[in-house]
């Protein structure tokens, strides 16, 4: 099912739920989304798992570009689960997910056993940078209904970045919980690799090559270079302005043209969170990660964690 058709179906179903009181409507909507996630998970050849704002769209554009060039697919066709697999079966069905809704369908809130039989590319990023990017997503791009469905602060709320960072439902505490769960569950999957956003910023080609080999491909140096250049920061901004990936819905369109913080591609800076807080606030934020018992994918867990040290 294409993204546009999927969104249309969801809109129709959502319209039928509007007569319900909000708690029932929310439960039904999340169940439907979880049903869709479960359907894709069962059919997926591989899963790309991440928390939002971890570089997934950037990675997806690189991956899509590789498939475009390798298999002669028209530019602008971004990989959307099985859409490119339908064009050429050598392209795997990749399920891109944050895992938001599956538990509402399965009823399993204890672990990630549904993923244990899958091959997973785990994309991670410093939770502090994630939270800052998520704040701008919430403020400038996120639809009101999405905020209500996922327990974000209400649409139009006058909330500071620091308060958002500390929010138990969507801020740093919840991101740390997500990382803690997957740190424990990822070794139980069929096979997995972990790609750090910070490493991808330094050597995007190496990260892309590693993922492609994991997915069963043998990319050439020229194919890797072309994909990396195509998805480079400046070109991604141009693609977003030109709405090149219009078939993928609103994923790569600015929330408001000309407003930098409303773009999907915003700053792409490692450790950029440090620019947004006072010294006292940074001490609290950094302390939250240092207080984690063990490093989560290399983030947190005390001063011995290399990614705490690098960011500080």
Helix count from the secondary structure assignment: 14
Low-confidence stretches: none
How do the SSEs run, as a string of H and E? HHEHEHEHHHHEHHHHHH
Structural class: alpha/beta
- Report the helical percentage: 40-55%
Overall outline: globular
- Main beta sheet strand tally, sense and closure: 4 strands, parallel
What is the strand content? 5-15%
Mean pLDDT: 87
| Head-to-tail CA distance between termini | 45 Å
Largest sheet strand order: 2-1-3-4
Number of strand segments: 4
What gyration radius follows from the Cα positions, in whole Å?
19 Å
Give structural notes.
By secondary structure, the protein is of the alpha/beta class. Helices cover 49% and strands 7% of the residues. Helix 3 crosses helix 11 and helix 10 packs across helix 11. It is globular, with a radius of gyration of 19 Å. The model has no long low-confidence stretch (mean pLDDT 87).
Quick tags:
single chain, 312 residues, alpha/beta, four-stranded parallel beta sheet, 4 strands, 49% helix, globular
The gist of it:
The protein is α/β, with parallel strands linked by helices and 312 residues long. It has 14 helices and four strands. Strands 2-1-3-4 form a four-stranded parallel sheet, sandwiched between helices.
Q: SSE layout and pairings?
A:
Elements lengths: L2 H15 L4 H22 L2 E5 L5 H16 L22 E4 L4 H5 L12 E6 L2 H14 L3 H6 L11 H6 L5 H14 L5 E6 H6 L1 H11 L6 H10 L2 H10 L36 H12 L15 H6 L1
Helix pairs in contact: 3-11, 10-11
């Amino acid at each position: 099912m294409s993204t546009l058709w999927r969104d249309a179906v969801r809109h129709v179903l959502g319209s039928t739920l509007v007569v319900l009181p909000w708690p029932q409507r929310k439960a039904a909507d999340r169940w439907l989304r979880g049903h869709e996630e479960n359907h894709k998970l069962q059919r997926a050849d591989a899963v790309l798992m991440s928390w939002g704002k971890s570089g997934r769209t950037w990675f997806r554009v690189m991956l899509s570009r590789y498939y475009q060039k390798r298999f002669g697919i028209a530019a602008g066709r971004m990989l959307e689960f099985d859409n490119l697999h339908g064009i050429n079966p050598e392209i795997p069905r990749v399920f891109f997910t944050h895992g938001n809704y599956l538990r509402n369908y399965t009823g399993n809130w204890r672990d990630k056993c549904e993923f244990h039989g899958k091959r997973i590319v785990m994309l991670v990023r410093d939770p502090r940078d994630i939270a800052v990017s998520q704040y701008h997503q919430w403020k400038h791009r996120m639809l009101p209904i999405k905020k209500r469905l996922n327990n974000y602060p209400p649409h139009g709320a006058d909330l500071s970045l620091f308060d958002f960072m500390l929010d138990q439902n969507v801020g740093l505490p919840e991101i740390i919980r997500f990382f803690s769960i997957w740190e424990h569950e990822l070794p139980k999957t069929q096979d997995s690799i972990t790609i750090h956003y910070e490493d991808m910023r330094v050597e995007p080609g190496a990260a892309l090559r590693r993922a492609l080999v994991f997915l069963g491909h043998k990319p050439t140096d020229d194919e890797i270079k072309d994909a990396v250049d195509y998805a480079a920061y400046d070109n991604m901004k141009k693609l977003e302005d030109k709405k090149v990936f219009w078939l993928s819905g609103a994923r790569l369109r600015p929330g408001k043209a000309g407003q930098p913080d409303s773009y999907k591609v915003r700053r792409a800076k490692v450790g950029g969170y440090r620019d947004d807080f006072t010294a006292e606030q940074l001490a609290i934020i950094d302390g939250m990660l240092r207080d984690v018992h063990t490093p989560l994918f290399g983030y947190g867990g005390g001063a011995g964690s290399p990614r705490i040290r690098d960011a500080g």
